[in-house]
Amino acid sequence: MDLLLSLGLLLLFAKIFGSYTNKLGISSMVGEIVAGILLGPFITLDTSFSIITFFGIMFVLFLSGLSTNFEEIKGNFYFGSIIAIGNCLITATAAYFFGILVFKNHLIAFLMAVAVASTSDAVGLKCLIDLGEFKSNLGKKIVAIILSDDVISIAGLAILMMYVTVGNVVMGDVSVLILMTIGFFILALSLGAKIVHYIFLYSKKIFDDEYTLLILTFTIFFVIAFLAEKIGVTAIVGAFIAGTIINKNKKINEVVEPKVKTIGEGFFIPLFFAYIGATLEISGLLTIWPLIIIFSIIMICAKFFSGYLLTMPYGLRKNERMVVGASLIPRGDYTIAIAQLGLSLGIINAEVNELLVFMTLITTLVTPILMKTVKWVI
Amino acid sequence: MDVIILLYIALLLVVAKFFGEIVNKIGISSLVGEVFAGILLGPILGVVVLPNDINAQLAPFVGLGMLFLLFLSGLSTRFEDMKGDLYVGGIITVIGGVLTAVAGFLFGLFFFNDIMISIFIAVALISSSTVVAVRSLENIGEQNSYIGKRVLAIMLIDDVMAMTALAIMMMYVSSGKIFMFDIFKLILVIAGFIGVVLALGPKVSDKIFSRLHKFEDDEIIFSIALVFLLIIASISGMLGLATVTGAFLAGVILNNIQYVNELVPKIKTIGYGFFIPLFFAYIGLALKLDAILSSIFIVLLLAVITILTKFSAGAFFSKYLGIKKHERMIIGASMIPRADYSLVIANVALSIGMITANIYSIVVAVVLITIVITPVIMKEVKWMR
């Protein structure tokens, strides 16, 4: 089957299934992956797909940076970042030990730890909206945690990739890596943001149409991603940073964000998730399903209890703390993107990838149910 | 995936946009600037020289660029708006097309002594560019007048003619022969398809899209429109037509749906904001400057022939249709520019190995000359009485 037909069919089923699951209150990602699983046997995935899926990952991260509204964190900055750091560390540690125990490989365990740390923005926020808690005080606190934990997992990924590129590093050097990564972040977000600001300012004087803005945005996006890869923190970390930098220019962002969203969510991203589904080996499920279930339970408990326990000193009621815990459970695009990256770099094998993808699916399916239950408990 | 591709794409996009806007400011179609950006980055400066593996990775994007170009062209083709002008427009178009094709074919035989190249030149130069023509009509303020409307009708039939010519060319490439019967069949198929599309397309696709609207997903209409594009393009590829022909027809089907006003800006966003400038810059990359310079005489002669055949069809042969001289001159001038179709056909022919990079470069150079010269001629004829 040729490329165009494969792309057309994947996009068709991904978008319809995705919209359907989205309507049911589960993330559209789930439907897109399921569409890929169903179509997988019928389509041929040749190398022409690689650039389209590569752009899919890039757009996931770029859009995440572009549409994160950091204003929302302001009032709850310390609360959000402390809880986020706490729950990321606890979850990552749990995943790391699980990885060491099962796969007996340090690098695999490290990648798993980074992959599972973050919470899915889409699912977590959607559940809050469905519960009517989005605008409440509690909702704002949860949003702060979810957004901060994106940044932490991006930083984690950067450290992991530095580690992979530098090679065998002793524990003492890890602190150097962390410093380098932080340095890159600070440099990009301060100096980079200034340069970008002036680029937009001057180009606006000469050319003033929306396509120019969009193309400049893409140029900045690709160049930063390229630099990030060359420095060793991977292109997708660069994509996220590029998104946050452009996000800082409010006027530009207003014009550009919906357009990038159209291209991302209307084309590249559903194709990426459907591709993930299509490349899964479903027969492998027969042997690893117990592992998936155990891993999912650990991952659900790690997030839920860390959210529940860490918020104790902040004067929240018991059922509010349970809502916090539940809303941190869903994993999403980050986990899948990082797993795919690990797979393409040969850090993990198809089995680990499957474990991570199915854990992600299970957590997104479980969250809406759990949220509704805990809200009315006690 | 080699991330260097990101840097190449970024460079091509930003330089293409820069030169595109500059030539746009002086009243020439921006695609000249975009192709020039490719020439500058590739053959002149040697900054973007794609190794084979990266070229292969980029190929899907270039292909999508062509599809979006023709899809958008189909989306702006509305048969029912110009029913009255179709008859006159059709005659002028066919005269212009036949003149160009015959002249191009003979030119190819004379200078290159090769049937394949001759067919390519004939087909590549047969169609005028709607976008560039409309642009130059805007420059003289005629885009909404009755002359402008008539030009649009000509351009519309011209599009259909170009697609038919491309289909015939693909048929020749795959079978090595052209059967009159097959051409006849092909024309019937295309005419039949358009008939079916006009009769059923709006109702069926409207129903599909209304149903989709219930999903409350912002991008679903856009995505499913892309599905139409990809699947129809793929089917026409399987039928032996070019995929770009399918893209054009997909656009024609969808321009009747109720949500077209919501759809077109989004298709333009992904097209003009990403794939199309990338495609035009890519066109420039493959150009061989030495081939153009060493055969500059051939390039100029072909350019003159290309300009004269179309201009005379519009300006002189239409005399017998009872059109006033002033109007005929403008019609003739607006038929001169070759652009998007010619470049797409050149790229298709180059990628399937039908022509060499030298012939490709010559035709692209001719195309660029016609685009640059159109506004000049247009200004001249505007005041002719």
Looking at this protein, list some descriptive labels:
heterodimer, A: 378 residues, mainly alpha, Na+/H+ antiporter like fold, 82% helix, 0% strand, B: 385 residues, 16 helices, 79% helix
Give the secondary structure arrangement, pairings included.
The complex is a heterodimer of chains A (about 375) and B (about 375).
Chain A: H1 3-23, H2 28-39, H3 48-67, H4 77-103, H5 106-116, H6 121-131, H7 137-166, H8 171-206, H9 210-231, H10 235-248, H11 250-279, H12 285-310, H13 318-327, H14 333-345, H15 350-376
Helix pairs in contact in A: 1-2, 1-11, 2-11, 3-10, 3-11, 4-5, 4-7, 4-12, 5-7, 5-14, 6-7, 6-15, 7-8, 8-9, 8-10, 9-10, 9-11, 12-13, 12-15, 13-15, 14-15
Chain B: H1 4-25, H2 30-44, H3 52-75, H4 86-112, H5 115-124, H6 130-139, H7 146-175, H8 180-213, H9 220-238, H10 243-254, H11 260-285, H12 289-294, H13 296-315, H14 325-334, H15 340-351, H16 357-382
Helix pairs in contact in B: 1-2, 1-11, 2-11, 3-10, 3-11, 4-5, 4-7, 4-13, 5-7, 6-7, 6-16, 7-14, 8-10, 9-10, 13-14, 13-16, 14-16, 15-16
